[in-house]
Amino acid sequence: MTKELPLVLASGSPRRLALLQQIGIEPDFLLPADIDETPVRGESPRALAQRLARGKAAAARVLIDRDEEKAHSIILGSDTVVAVGRRILPKAESKEQASVCLQLLSGRMHKVYTGVCVNMPDGVVRTKLVETRVRFRRLSANDTDKYLASGEWRGKAGGYAIQGLAGAFIARVIGSYPSVVGLPLLETANLLQSAGYPTQKAWDEDAVPAA
């Protein structure tokens, strides 16, 4: 039955889309969910990642329920939170914010939490939280200045993009690298499979491009 159900990605992130495409999953619709991402007072980083993933999927469900073409879709929502201890780092929108993040991350281990939510048209909701530890090498003033000048930090959780220039700062990753990029692939595929979505339907020899 669920083979006929379309998949909606409740995100405007090109990174999450590219990660899904990497494992052969092509969402039928992209529907960025606009929700308030402000942490609740006293909320832990892991609780925030879970709440936002569920919230994005739920917000997308409200929107598509008004659209006959999309109403019976599986919705995939996700959010990534970067934290030093219990301190939640922002999705940097200014050089000042990004600079503070880089200073906090320099030379230390931090945690990246990515929540994933699959919202079914019958009301069933499946979630998963993935925790990854990332260690930065110690950053010099020149490292920080050059990275801030690149602009890559803009809109990124914790003020950096591990898949970009900031990869040169990463000394160690313990856990899921794609989760730090924005979507844990193993856990996402497992959630979709448990929902009955055919995650390997594009794994045909003729459909997979040669390396």
UniProtKB/TrEMBL annotation:
EC number(s) from the headed UniProt entry: 3.6.1.9
Coiled coil: none
Tree of life domain: Bacteria
Signal peptide: none
Cofactor: a divalent metal cation
Active site residues per record: 79 (proton acceptor)
Pfam families: Maf (PF02545)
Keyword terms of this UniProt record: Cytoplasm, Hydrolase, Nucleotide metabolism
Any one GO cellular component localisation term in the record: cytoplasm
Subcellular location as annotated: Cytoplasm
Recorded GO MF terms: dTTP diphosphatase activity; UTP diphosphatase activity
Site features described as Important for substrate specificity, chain residue numbers: 15, 80, 163
InterPro entries referenced in this protein's UniProt entry, alphabetically: ITPase-like_fam (IPR029001), Maf-like (IPR003697)
Reaction catalysis annotation: dTTP + H2O = dTMP + diphosphate + H(+); UTP + H2O = UMP + diphosphate + H(+)
Homology family: Belongs to the Maf family. YhdE subfamily.
Role played: Nucleoside triphosphate pyrophosphatase that hydrolyzes dTTP and UTP. May have a dual role in cell division arrest and in preventing the incorporation of modified nucleotides into cellular nucleic acids.
Protein name: dTTP/UTP pyrophosphatase
